[in-house]
Design brief:
Blueprint lengths: L13 H25 L2 H7 L4 H7 L3 H27 L4 H18 L1 H17 L1 H27 L10 H21 L6 H16 L2
């Protein structure tokens, strides 16, 4: 079932566009830190120095705000891949998969709250808000499918990867493993470095599927 789209107001002025952008940035940060249930629209309005009425003009409900935040993060992540895609299609499958994994890891390292948002919202929405859970599943499935296609290319075309591994399972493990490691690192950030643990995950998976 397709997820519900967030309610949108007609935005014509540059100032209104910037305001919406500021709201989404603040919402992503608050939801990542506190989750869905603990974050209120009134609290968000205070964080961005806005009246609740003005906030509700942009986003009539908290669910609309969550859906818009998921859409915004998805667009940012997809856009971050654009410089890499033209080169990747020319490479062997193993090099494509390694580059994809490195990019995901770097993106989440540079945008830590994006990964934490996915983890926090995903955990709560799965039990409480089906429209939000569906939107998050749809966005994450895009990344899973991209990795799945690379693995199948390596299995069927370039013959670099073992055929006794399931491409969909490995793709899910990589995407959700990365999100889980961001959440774990946030908990242990005083004593644990992010880069070595995510590199270990990628090395295990990449070496494990090579022939």
């Amino acid at each position: 079932m397709p997820s519900r789209s967030p309610a949108k107001r007609a935005i014509k002025q540059d100032r209104a566009v910037k305001t919406r952008h500021d709201i989404l940035n603040s919402a992503i940060t608050l939801f990542a830190r506190r989750g869905i249930l603990a974050t209120t629209m009134a609290e968000l309005a205070r964080a961005i120095h806005m009246t609740p009425g003005a906030l509700y003009w942009h986003f009539p409900t908290k669910e609309d705000l969550l859906l818009a935040a998921i859409e915004e993060l998805h667009q940012r992540f997809v856009a971050s891949f654009e410089p890499l895609l033209l080169d990747m299609v020319k490479w062997p499958a193993a090099k494509q998969l390694e580059a994809f994994c490195k990019h995901v890891a770097q993106f989440l390292q540079d945008n830590r709250e994006h990964g934490i948002f996915y983890g926090m919202v995903g955990a709560e929405a799965a039990e409480n808000t089906e429209d939000v859970a569906s939107a998050l599943r749809t966005a994450l499935q895009v990344y899973v499918t991209a990795i799945q296609q690379i693995i199948r290319y390596g299995q069927e075309k370039t013959k670099e990867f073992r055929t006794d591994v399931d491409a969909q399972t490995i793709a899910n493990a990589l995407i959700f493993g990365n999100i889980g490691l961001v959440v774990q690192h946030n908990l242990f950030r005083e004593t644990l470095s992010y880069a070595p643990i995510v590199q270990s995950l990628h090395q295990v998976v990449l070496k494990g599927i090579l022939k």
